[in-house]
Design goal:
The complex is a heterodimer. By secondary structure, chain A is mainly β. Helices cover 0% and strands 50% of the residues of chain A. Chain A is globular and about 40 Å long. Chain B is mainly β. The chains are: A mainly beta, B mainly beta. Chains A and B meet through β4, β5, β9 and β10 of A and β4 and β8 of B.
Chain lengths: 113, 111
């Protein structure tokens, strides 16, 4: 059973640029959730995708967007990068949306200069 | 979602049981208690969850009080690899299972 994989592991961008982060869900999982984790804080929910549709969104501006593909892999896109976007971005997959445990990847560390 | 509160840190000796407390006094009847942990430089790892009965798996035991206002995660024989931040989360049943993480409790296992 392949776990959740994220790419790239590290990324450096400058303010105003755009970035795309990728996530492959665990085999058999059809739900992907994205979280942002600032240094020293717990992860914060960005949004969730279930069967290619957005299924809930946290308190993040529209410049954070996502996609889920037919194979249930997912992308997180962030436009007009700001210094505060520097964080660890975590992807988690699960089966369905009803209380099945979420399984996390090890994240993408994004640094904005 | 119910708010959970955890002490900021605790430690225990290697080989001893680690008992991690969590308060969730406003939990509603349809909210599960979930525990995750995050080892440094890794993503969170699911440990266990329960509604009202005590639960046990290969990693840990979860003891929920009868009034469901608090719970304890028990690692029966802590090892150095159990050093991590442990998060207790109350999650309602139903759609949009977003996890609301607090700051968690940092467990340090000493040799």
């Amino acid at each position: 059973e392949t776990g959740v994989t994220q790419s790239p592991t590290h990324l450096i961008k400058t303010r105003g640029q755009q970035v795309t982060l990728r996530c492959s869900s665990q085999s058999g999982h059809n739900t992907v959730s994205w979280y942002q984790q600032a240094l020293g804080q717990g992860p914060q929910f960005i949004f969730q995708y279930y069967r290619e549709e957005e299924n809930g969104r946290g308190n993040f501006p529209p410049r954070f967007s996502g996609l889920q593909f037919p194979n249930y892999s997912s992308e997180l896109n962030v436009n007009a990068l700001e210094l505060d976007d520097s964080a660890l971005y975590l992807c988690a997959s699960s089966l369905g949306v009803s209380n099945q445990p979420q399984h996390f990847g090890d994240g993408t560390r994004l640094s904005i200069l | 979602d119910a708010k959970t509160t955890q002490p900021p840190s605790m430690d225990c000796a290697e080989g001893r049981a680690a008992n991690l407390p969590c308060n969730h006094s406003t939990i509603s009847g349809n909210e599960y208690v979930y525990w995750y942990r995050q080892i440094h430089s890794q993503g969170p790892q699911y440990i266990i969850h329960g509604l009202k009965n005590n639960e046990t798996n290969e990693m840990a035991s979860l003891i929920i009080t009868e009034d469901r206002k608090s719970s304890t995660l028990i690692l029966p024989h802590a090892t150095l690899r159990d050093t991590a931040v442990y998060y207790c989360i109350a999650l309602p049943t139903g759609a949009n299972s977003k996890l609301t993480f607090g700051k968690g409790i940092t467990l340090s296992v000493r040799p």
